[in-house]
Fold this sequence. Notes:
Strand order of the largest sheet of chain B: 2-3-9-8
Radius of gyration of chain B: 19 Å
Number of strands of chain A: 9
Low-confidence stretches of chain B: 1-16, 20-33
Oligomer: heterodimer
Number of helices of chain B: 1
Structural class of chain B: mainly beta
CATH architecture of the domain at 9-18 and 28-73 and 89-121 in chain A: Sandwich
Helix content of chain B: under 10%
Order of helices and strands of chain B: HEEEEEEEEE
Helix content of chain A: under 10%
Low-confidence stretches of chain A: 1-7, 9-21
CATH class of the domain at 9-18 and 28-73 and 89-121 in chain A: Mainly Beta
Largest sheet of chain A: 4 strands, mixed
Shape of chain A: elongated
Distance between the termini of chain A: 91 Å
CATH topology of the domain at 9-18 and 28-73 and 89-121 in chain A: Immunoglobulin-like
Strand order of the largest sheet of chain A: 1-7-5-4
Order of helices and strands of chain A: HEEEEEEEEE
Mean pLDDT of chain B: 78
Shape of chain B: elongated
Number of strands of chain B: 9
Strand content of chain B: 35-45%
Amino acid sequence: MTSNSNELKTRDAQEVRNLPVKADRKFLLPATDVYETPEAYVLMIDLPGVEKGTIQLRVENEELFVRAEVGPLHRPDAVILHREHIADGYDRVFSLGNDVDMTNIDAQLENGVLTVKLLKSEKVKAREITIR
Amino acid sequence: MLNSVFENLLGLERDLDSLFEGAVLPSRFISPVSAPAMNLVDEGREFIATLELPGVKKEAVKITKNGNALTISGERMRGSAPENGKWLRNESWEGNFSRTLELPKGIDESGIAAELTNGVLRVVLPKAEAIKPREIAIR
Lengths: 132, 139
């Protein structure tokens, strides 16, 4: 009797356990989309598997720091059969322009995407100039 | 090996990214596998498949079983910029996705369940009694 060949059984358990175990955790750069409006910059940062409580988000000297940890997806003694997502966490720094109002930043996490809205400082918002 | 391919492409650098650059996708973000990334583990009593689906709502995911093939498909709509908005950087993937698993014999099909939390889809594939690991007593 032959078993189905299938992705879930491509590796023998013993073979997987012999793969080197990395002690250091991998923090990767999260994919980020950015758009700009006359009033703000909006960043949408992919943080799949991240719990809100592990996110560190801070601005300092015109830089935006994002760091977050991915929660465990399975038990530590689980046998890994196939591994494509490898991030233990995410870490990235963005340099902001000098037109960001540092005191006016909004952040919201939904469906594993962190949306950060940075309002521009009053003085640089575009405005119409009336000609007398 | 799969792991070392990823280490080269998705570096650990902590460099400074300006909001304004990014018209070209840096190579370190390009995943060599078709999005979304999937992991498969054996937890003894069940198999678990996890897929990274950031920004995807539950209603946009479909899981179908056809014989011993389990297909997870759907669509990711990237967050849209408002009309007066201008994109500065686009790194995330969007569009239709589909991954298919070939299920081994011995899966308890009635117990297959899935949940989508924090942008990760977790599919539980319980093993029927016959293939669960068990101790064998020595006479």
